[in-house]
Amino acid sequence: MIKELLMAGFLALEDYIVKHVITCLIPAFLLAGAMVTFIDKTVIIKYLGSEANKIRSFSLASISSFLLAACSCTVIPVASGLYYTGASIGVAFIILWVAPAANILALIYTGAILGTKMVLSRIVSALLMAFIVGWIMVLVFERESKESLLKAEVGGKSIIPKKYLILIILILLSLLSPNYLVRSGPYWHKVLVWTFFTFIMVIYAIINIPKDKIRDWLRETWWFIRLIFPLLLLGVFIVGIIGKILPEEWIKAWLGGKSLSASFFATFIGAVSYFATMTEAPFVDTLMKLGMGKGPALALLLTGPGISLPNWLAIAKVFGVKKALVYIPTIIILGTLVGWFFGNFIF
Amino acid sequence: MEIIVAGPGCPRCIATENNVKKACEELGLEAKITHLYDVKLFPQLGIILTPAVVINGQVVVSGKVPTVEELKEILSKMAK
After folding, report:
1. What's B29's DSSP letter?
2. Cβ B11–A73 below 8 Å, yes or no?
3. Residues A152/A47, Cβ–Cβ less than 8 Å
4. CB-CB: which of A42, A71, A318 is closest to B39?
5. Which CATH number do you get for residue B33?
6. pLDDT in tens, A211-262
7. Domain enclosing residue B8, as ranges
8. Which residue of A has its CA nearest to B12?
9. I need a surface site. Which of A210, A238, A292, A312 has the fewest CB within 10 A?
10. Each residue of B21-56: pLDDT tens digit?
11. Strand order in the sheet with B58-62
C-alpha cells in the first residue's frame, strides 16, 4: 500500500515537473527574476500611491500586481505600505488579492497544465474579483479624503528601460512559443522550439545587457528557484498521493458538476489551506481527472493560492481584525459565485 | 552605526540580515543590527519594498537581497 502511494507521488512528479522543467519552469523563473530585477517597482508604487481616481488606481493596482511577481515577501509590505502612506484601502487589498491569485509564475504553469481557456478564465475572474473586493473595502472602510504621503515625482523616470523590455519579451517568447506553437507531437519538438528562442534571448542578453545586471537577474532567478522549487516538488508529490487516496465518488459528490454547493466547497478548501504558488495547478488537474467540475476547479485555482489560514492571520495582524473579517468572507462569497457562474455559462 | 534590516520575516529578509552581519564582520565594523518585522512601521522609515536595509536612518537597499560585497561597499562609504 505504502509502496503504491509513493509510486503515485513519483509518477505525479514525472508528469508535472520533469515534463515541464525545460520548456515551462526554467523560462518562467527566468521571467520572474527579470521582472524583479529590471522593472522599477518604486515608480509603479509612487503612481499607485498618488493616483486619486478610483477606477484608474484600481486598474493600475490590478495590472501592476501581475508585475510585482510572486513572493509574499513583497506583497504584504507593499500593500500595507501603500495603505499606511495614504493610498486607497481598495488599492491595498487589490494588490493583496491579485498578486498571489494571479501571479505570473502560477498563470504560466496553469496554462501549461490546464490549457488556455482555464488560464484566461483565471485572469479575468481574478481581475473581476479584485475590482469588487476593492470597491467593497472602500465602501466599508474608506476614511475621509486624505493627503497621500507618496508624491508622484516620477517625471521622466520610466518603469522599465527599452532594452530590458525587449529582454523580457524575448523570455516570454521562449516561454510561450514551445507551449503554444507546438500543440501536439513528441516532447522534443517543444524542446527544439524552446532551444531556438532561448538561443536568441541569450545572444541578445550577452550583447545588450551589462554584465552586473545579468548577474543580478540570474541571482533573482536563483532565489525564485530556491524558494519555490522545493515547495513545488513537495506539493506535487503530495498531490500524487492525495489523488490516489481520495475516492472518486467523494470528489464527484462534493466537487463534481456545476452546482453552487460544489463551487462553495472548492472555494472553502482553497481559502483555508495553504498552497505554495504553482502547486494549485497540478492539484486541480488531479481533482479534475477524478471528476471535479470546471467551475469549482476555477474557484479552487483562485482561492487556493489567493488566501490561506496563515494569510488570514497576517492580514488581521497588519490591517486589523475588522478588515480581515470583511475581506475574507467577501473573497469566499465571490469565489463561490465566480465558480458557479463560469461553470454554468462559460465552460 | 545603527543598521536596521526590515522585512516581514521571509527567507529573503533573513538572507539579507545574514549578509549584513557578514559584511560588518568582514569589515570589523561595530554596528547595532536590528531586524524590524512590523510592516506597519516601514512607511515611517521610508521603506516601500522589502527586504530593506536602513543605515543611520537612510534607506540604502530596498527590494532586493544585497550581496556581502555590495554591503561592504555601502558600509565603508557610510562609515567615513
Report:
1. -
2. yes
3. yes
4. A318
5. 3.40.30.10
6. 999 999 999 899 889 888 999 999 999 999 999 999 999 999 999 999 999 9
7. 2-79
8. A73
9. A210
10. 999 999 998 899 999 998 888 888 888 888 899 999
11. B32-36, B2-6, B52-55, B58-62
